[in-house]
Amino acid sequence: MAVSGQRRRPVVALYERIADAVHDGTYPPGSTLPSEPKLAAELGVSRPALREALLLLQEDGVLTVRRGVGRTVNDRPPRRGFEQVQPLEELIGGGAPLRVRALLRTVEEPTDFTTQHLLTPARAELRFWESVLSGEGTAAALSHEWAAADDLLDRVHPDFARALREADADGRPAVSMLSVLVGASRETALSAHSGITATLLGRRRGDQLGRPADTPTVLVTQVVRVGEVPVLAAKHTLPTGAPALPVLHSH
Question: 220 and 142 in contact (C-beta within 8 Å)?
Answer without folding.
Answer: no
